[in-house]
Automatic annotation (TrEMBL):
Xref: InterPro entries: GLUG
Pfam families: Glug
Domain of life of the organism encoding this protein: Bacteria
The organism of origin for this protein: Streptococcus pneumoniae
Protein name: GLUG domain-containing protein
Residue ranges constituting the GLUG domain according to the UniProt record: 27-54
Amino acid sequence: VGQLTGANARVAHSISTVVISSNGEHSNQTIGGIVGIVENNATVENSYAEGEINNAKPFARVGGVAGSLWTQEGGTDNNTGRLTNVLSDMNITNGNAISGYHFNGIKETNVYSNKENKVVNVQA
């Protein structure tokens, strides 16, 4: 749901309160509490997400902040987005509290969640 794209596009100082129910069943479907896809050096910074996303099936990329930080079309780290100074207070069913899709080289700085299902690559 939603896509932040374009060289150096950004969402800053955002507060998102959401309740989303979804039936995403394919890995090319992305759902996030602030944005679905963050790509091409786009940034979500100094932002906070709270609420819940209930995805009925475990196949879509579902994240409390962003569904994905990597475009499915690009295939390289150069096409990734970035999360900086972000807090997630999201309850997620069939996804992660921060990013729904994580990979080596993910660009996250000062990203936190108090939930159990946070992405494993979060850097403190």
